[in-house]
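Before going further, it is useful to explain how the protein records used in this thesis are read. An example of such a record is reproduced below.

***
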Amino acid sequence: MELQTGNYKIRFISGGYEVFKDQELLYYNRRPMYAFVKTALSITEFYDAPYEEVAESANGLIAEGILRTPTGTELKFHDSFVIVSGGLRVDRKVSVIKTIDDLGFASKISFVLAPSDEISDYDYFAPGAWYRQNQFTAPHVVGNDTDCEYFWQSELKFGLPLFSAQHRASGEAISLSRWAADVVMRDTSIVASEHHVDRLINTGALGISKPEPKTLNYLYYGYPLRKQIETKRDGLMIDYVYPCTDGELPRKGIVYNIDYMMRTKTFSRVYHPMEIGFIQTYSVLVALGKYQNYYDMMLDAWRETYDRLRAPLFKVDNKQHYFNCMQLLTKATRKYGNAIGLPFACQLPDFDISSVSFQFGFVGQQPGIGYNLICYGDREGQQESSDKGRQIIDFWVKTAMTESGAPNVCYNPTIESFEPYPLWTRMIADGLEAILDAYVFTKKKNEDHPEWLEFCKQAANWLLTVQNDDGSFYRAYNQDNSMRMDSKANTTSVIRFLIQFYLVTRIEEYKAAALRAGTWCYENVYLNMEYRGSTCDNLDIIDNESGIYAMYAFQALYDLTSEDKWLEALKAAADFTETWTYSWDFPIRTMLPKHPFNTNGISGQSIITIGSGAGDVYMAAVSFNYYRLYLITGDEHYRDFAEFIHCNTRQSNDVDGSVGYIMTGLGHEAANFSNQTLQSHYHWLPWCTYVEIDPTARLEAAFGVYDIAEAELLPMQARIDSNRIYDHYADFSN
């Protein structure tokens, strides 16, 4: 018997299944009934067996059988296989029909990767957790250390519950994804351990495995307890494990155990109770395809799952939210001696200031907020906002410049000077863009600030001085212009500033520098998929902010030149970046009486550090960019995603005052919620509000509206014309 999806045939033979394309065997599983059993000794053993019966059903095939363990446990498997849009849907039901002394169980749906059992022969994709071979990640991140047998993570750590494996030589790929966004709350009456039973949990784990025919249990002090078993391994497998398992992961922090002096790892399992009558059910989509490159595979896998599981839009009045945020920023801006700015961090819900320090960009975004205050205040007649915005820009222009031409980036009013901070290329670019934008905005109003332009010129000349011969820039510099960090991956961060400074001055050297930097980024960041290093408080690792800054760079290059190569790179960066967004919802608890997630969902939050399961609102920063990309390409998906992040990122804010924060519009910086219990610093930083108001302000400046749904009501040609933002960027004729 067989089923067919596209060019692929799934044949059921000898109690197993095989996937062929033409006559080539790509994937198989000879013993699909697979169970992990928590024994009376509280270790995990695993067993597998072929189906006993396979029969046709009204919609597809039904496969059944009983898995019997040496301890006397019997688990009945009932698997349904149906061809649906997107691939093969597998619905599994596992029933406990007999048990004597076992404590819990889990199962998995797996496919052996037939072309090779070498991990390095495949590239992998798990949204926000695994890209290609995770070579640009910290050592404790799954996939970085290939000296493991299991590479599984909870699907709650993924932007969508999806995992793909692509054979590098052939381009053939297989993806497993959860069928529906129907997660329920785990049992909160128990504390999760490394080896516990939870009858309520219905989340799975995704990944690959290449196990030895031995059990593997890491005891609490790191000793790997192993026992030979009869189960045989056929090769490298892609797995959906249910309920979820995290591991095997290199231990973060202390990597050597004092007793055994070995590298220890973690392996946390969850089981359903081994009770007669207990039934486990779950559904998975299996998608198959062949792709020319990794980007195409990632795009297809992501979009199919996105279309199926994307959470509903959060209802928010974006115009009112923008006004609330601008009033918040106005109120939070104050003088500290001779300096003016916003606090570095404030605890919620009462805006209790916990730290005062001003950053030029990144998490402080002081000039960026200053520029937005000027625009808002002038447009709405809010004099306090206008004045404070101008004072912020003046403060940085008067105090930040160094003899070399590089601006200092972190001012502390307590010591009335700058902290000994590296000269981060990304942070410098953030502030310079904002000061230049402020100059352009006021110049168009016949208000000239030559000192603002001169500040930008000194810094632009500094960039020309430190640019490497290959067109790149280092990640950070010392005060004497020497290299501080030799990574070049976030060269992307300075390109938009250089282009816009060229548009203002029409000095060709700046354009040439931007194009040289762009060429380096095209060949290294885009083609090598090295979106890394843009966060100034983390290692030089892959992350979503690096994808965002690649979007900024390639979009600016396309706006300047209209060359297809930049649009190609822009789309690739956009496709990568959106996969870091929690585009589905699952329930969590906050343990805080005043928090938006008590009533709102988590969708729209974006994964901060690869594989962490922690989320923040940074994806809000690019709603305008994705909408612009839609207008350039006509790709409706970009419009949908732009609206999604323009709305759903607001779920972590008190958008209407109902949460009880001291100021409407406030939101928390970040939280980890992948275990369904929120863990957060519960504080606000300036960037949290900045990344929400800046794209809204750009949307209003370009299209005269505050919401993407409103922009969609405008004539298409008018939107396309308005989307040519560089046509009038430096037009001072009025």
